[in-house]
Amino acid sequence: MPQLLRKTEGQWAISEEPKSLWQSEAEWQSGQALLVAVDSEPSVEWLAASSISVDFPALTDGRGLSLAVLLRTRLNYRGDLVATGNVHEDIAHFLARCGYNVIELPEHKDLNTALQWIAPHTGFYQASVDSPAPVFSRTSG
Amino acid sequence: MYQYSEFDRTFVNQRVAHYRDQTARYLDGKLSDDEFLQLRLRNGLYIQRLAPMLRVAVPYGTLSSKQLHALAAISRDYDRGYGHLSTRQNMQFNWPAVADVPDILQALADVDMHAIQTSGSCIRNVTTDQFAGAAADESIDPRPFCELLRQWSTSHPEFEWLPRKFKIAVTGAKADRAAVGVHDIGMRIYGTAANPASAEIDIYAGGGLGRTPVLGALIRERLPVQHLLTYTEAIMRVYNRYGRRDNKYKARIKILVRALGADGFKAQVDAEWAHIKDSASKVPPEELQRLSQFFQPPLFVEQPDNAAALADLRFANPNFNRWLTHNISAHQAPGYAVVTLSTKSPGVPPGDVSAEQIDAVARWAAQFSYSEIRISHEQNFVLPHVPVSGLFELWQQACAMGLGSHNIGLLSDIICCPGGDYCSLANAKSLPVAEAIQRRFDDYDFQFDLGEIDLNISGCMNACGHHHVGHIGILGVDKKGQEFYQISLGGHAGHSGDAPQLGQIVGPSVARAEVCDVIDKILQVYLHNRFADESFLNCFSRIGMAPFKESIYAAAA
Asked: ipTM of this predicted complex?
C-alpha cells in the first residue's frame, strides 16, 4: 500500500489506496495512468491519461514544480496529479501549491509529519495554482 | 522604509514555527544531515569550518535603528558580540548554535526581519544601490520595486528548488552601485518617483562572477513595470526547467544563457512570457503607488548655510577634512549628505563590526539620519540622510568608536570574503591578505595620491569578494595544498556609469608572502605612467597589461 496524502474537496488527508499501474511515456496508451520524468515536455496527449504521476529524482529538483504549473495552467489538466519518487515531507506544501493533489512519500517517511506541514502558511505573497490571487490583489484592491 | 503588514508578520512567524519543528526533528534524528542541510540553508544557516554561520537578510540593504539594535542584541545573546557585513548587503553571525537558531529567527521576526532564502539554490535577497532614495544621480528609487520582488520571491512555490542560487540586483541611478551587470538578473529602472507605475526596466540576464565570470546580456529593453513579475516569472521558469542540474559548476543561469545564446534565451523567455503576461501577477498601478508610499523621502528641513563654519572645522581638523573628501556623497536634498561609515581599518577583518559599534550606528542613525541605515556591498554602513550641520559631531563619535576611517574608495577600503579562516568552500585565506595590504599601505598621503582604487579579495572562485570587478583583484587558489594568489587588473563593476568590465589575469599566481610586493609593483607602475589626474583604471586601459606584467615578473624571467 503506498503512503500518500490526497486532497479531496480542499482538504488534505492520509489516504490508503491501491497503487496504480503506471506506464512510462514510451509504453503509455490513452486511458492509462502515466508516469513522467521531471524533464518531460508536457503534451496535450497527456490529457487522455487516467492520472499523471511525476517522478522526483531528488528533493532538491524543482523541475517537477514547473511541470505541474504548466499541466494545471497551460494544459488545464484537471485529473489526479501525483508527486512520487524522492518526495520530502517538508516540500509537500510547495507541491500542493503548484497543483499536485496527491503526494506519495517514500516508505520510511512519516505521513503525519507531512500532513502537519502541508500548509505551514495561512496566506501567500504570490499567485500559484492553488491560490491564484497574489497578495497585492488583496491589499491594493 | 517598508513597514510590515499583519500579513507579513504572520508569514514570517509561521516560517519560524515551521523551522523550529524542522530543527527539533533534526536534533531528534528524524531528519538526516542531508535533508536538514537543504531546509536550514533556506533559512540562512550554513555549517562553516569552525561553527554554523547564520546569514540574516537585510532586504536591499535597508534597515532601521530598531532593527540594527536587535542585530546587536542577537550578536551578544547568541554569538560572540560581533557581526559581519556581507558583500550582498546582509549581516552574518559566525558562531550561533544550531539549537539556538529558531530563537534567533524569532528575535528577528519580532523586529520584522528574517533569514529566509539567504542561502540555498533559490532566489536570494534582492540587492540594490546603497544610496537609493538619497543619491543625487538617481532617477527613481529602486526600493519599491525591490520590495515587490522580495514579496513575490518569498517562498515562491515553483522557484524554491532551482539548479543553483539566484541573485537579482536593481538600480535606478546613473552610476551602477548595485553592479547589475554581474547578477543572474540585473534591472535598470527608468522613471520618476511621482509616477512609479509608468517606470520602465531594462532587464539583463546571465551575468555573474564565480568560476566563469560573465556580464549579463540585455534581453529586454524598457519593459513596462507592470510586467516586472510576469517577465521575471518567465525567466525563472525557463531557468528552472532547462538550467543544468548535472554539474554544480555549470548550473548558474549564465551557462544556460551562453548555451542558448542571448537571442535564443530571450526567444524562450518571450515565448513563455506570452502565455502569462496578462496573468494575475501583472502588477496594478495602485500597488506600485502603494509600495512607493513607504519609500517617500523624510521631510527634510531647510538647513542653515554653514559653509563658513564647516570650512573652519575642515581647516582645524585635517582628518575631518579627509573624511568629508572621501566618505560623503552628494544628497538629493540641499543641506544634507550621504555618509559612509567605513568598517575598514588595519587589524579588523573588512565588514566585521562589534555589538558596541552596531549599537552606536543605530544610535547615530536615530540622531542624525531619520533612523535609517544602509549596508553597502562594499561592507560598510551608510547613513543616508545626514544634515551637513551634524557631520562634525557624527565624525567625532564615529572616530571614538573606530568607525571614522577616511578611506572610502581608497586602497584600504578592501572588499573581502571571510575566506579560509571561516568558510569551508575557500581554497585560501583572504583576511590575512587584506590585513597585510592595509598595514603595508597604511600611509594616508600615499593612498590619497593613488586616488580611487577598488581592491577586492576572494578566497576561492565562488568570488564572494567580487575579485573580478576589482580594479585590482586577488583570488586565492590552491596549488598542491599551498595557498597561492592570482592577481587581476582592470575590472570594475560599472560604478562610474560605464558598462562593467571583468579584470584580466596578470600571470602566474604568487605566494602569500609575495602579494604585498606585487601590489606595490603594480602601484609603482601606475604612479610612474599616469598623466596628471589619470585614475588607475584609465591608466590601465591606456597602457595595457604589458608594463605591469613586466614589472611583476621581470626578476623571474
From this structure: 0.97
